[in-house]
Structure formats: C-alpha cells, structure tokens
Amino acid sequence: MTYIENVFVCMAAPLVVALLSLKRGQRAALVFCLAGMGACLLSAYLNTFFARLYQADAVNAATQIAPVVEEIMKLLPLLFFLAVFEPTFARFRLAAVIVAASFATFENICFLTQNGADQILFLLIRGFGTGAMHVVCGNVYGGVLRPVWDSRPLRAACLFALLCVAIIYHAIYNLLVSAGGTPQLIAYFVPLPTALCFRLLARKAEA
Q1: What angle do CA 163, 166, 170 make, to 5 degrees?
Q2: Residue 136 and residue 199: Cα distance in Å, rounded?
Q3: I need a surface site. Which of 19, 81, 140, 183 has the fewest CB within 10 A?
Q4: What are the boundaries of each domain within the chain?
C-alpha cells in the first residue's frame, strides 16, 4: 500500500522551505508547483471515491472519472489565480503549464513508488508520455485564450470549452493506455508531438 500523502509531504517540504527564503515576487512558481502536486493528491482521493460510488471498474474509472476529476482539479488553482490576482495572459499561461507539469511529476512519482523502478525503458516512455499529456492539457488554455483575454464573458466561455477539450484529450489518452499493446504505445508517443505543435503555435502568436 502506498501512502501518497506521505510522498506529498516529502516533496512539498523542501518547496515550502524554499518559499520562506524567497521574496514575495519570486514565490509564484513554487506556489503553483505545490498547487499542482496538491491537485494530484486530491484527485487521487476523489477518483477513488467516485469509482467506489459508481462501482466503476479500472477502465471506466480511468476513462470516465479520472479525466474529469483531474482536469477540473488542475483548473481550480488557475481559476483562483485568475479571479483574485487578474494576471496577464503570459502569467496565466505560465501558471497553467507549471500546475500541469507538477501534477504530472507527482503522478509519475506515485506510479514509481507503487510499481517499482526496475523497468527503466517503460518508465521513461510513460514518464514522457504522461508528462506531455498533462502539459498539453495545461497548454490548451494558452492558444485560444490570447485573442479573448480582455473580454471576461468570452474568456469564461472559452475556459469552460477548453476544459471540455482537455477532458476529452485526457480521456482518449487514458483509453488508449488502458487498451495495452500498440494503442498504449501510440498514447505514450502522441502527446510529445502535440506539445511541440503547441510550442510552434505559441511562437507564431508571439511573433
């Protein structure tokens, strides 16, 4: 049995200490790291709760429950950031990527503690695949929100629509991974090119 809250404490402790040693303007990145890992921890509890509530098997839980719970949990700290601090688009996009990457990092470490570290090739492929998938889901807000950033109604509508896109992308990824074999390998490799495409689109938008 893996006590993921203990893993969270071990990972969060040095970040909290680092927060205390930084100036106020330098703390944002570490705060979003903690938010991403905290979202992953809470998602694990909620996934288990809803899976038991609806008596879902592993595949249904991975494809129907986990994507919804995890993407909503990743969005919550961003919504708080948006509502309270009114950040610029660039800061919001950076926060979204940090939360997503931290979420994926904590998820990978929990997977490592549960399944061992003896299969380095599989762990490497899965680590990059899952990490890229979460980063893509975080990056999805960056490409579309820029043109509507100054309009609150449009921004709110787009946030909900992009959340749905992230959930669908996440669900497809989990479905392919659950299938095993060739679909699983496809799922692990597709997010990396997708992340690169987002990067190219961001460069074009900045140019």
Answers
A1: 140
A2: 10
A3: 183
A4: 4-206
Whole-prediction pTM: 0.91
User: Given CA atoms 158, 63, 65, 76 in this order, what sign does their dihedral have?
Assistant: negative
Tell me how far CA of residue 93 lies from CA of 72, 113, 139, 157, 158, in angstroms: 16, 31, 7, 17, 14
CA distance 29 to 168: 27
Instruction: With beta carbons less than 8 A apart as the criterion, state whether 158 and 145 touch.
Output: yes
pLDDT, tens digit, 9 for 90 and up, residues 103-151: 999 999 988 888 777 788 888 888 889 999 999 998 888 667 888 888 8
Q: pLDDT under 70 in the chain at which residues?
A: 1-2, 142-143, 205-207
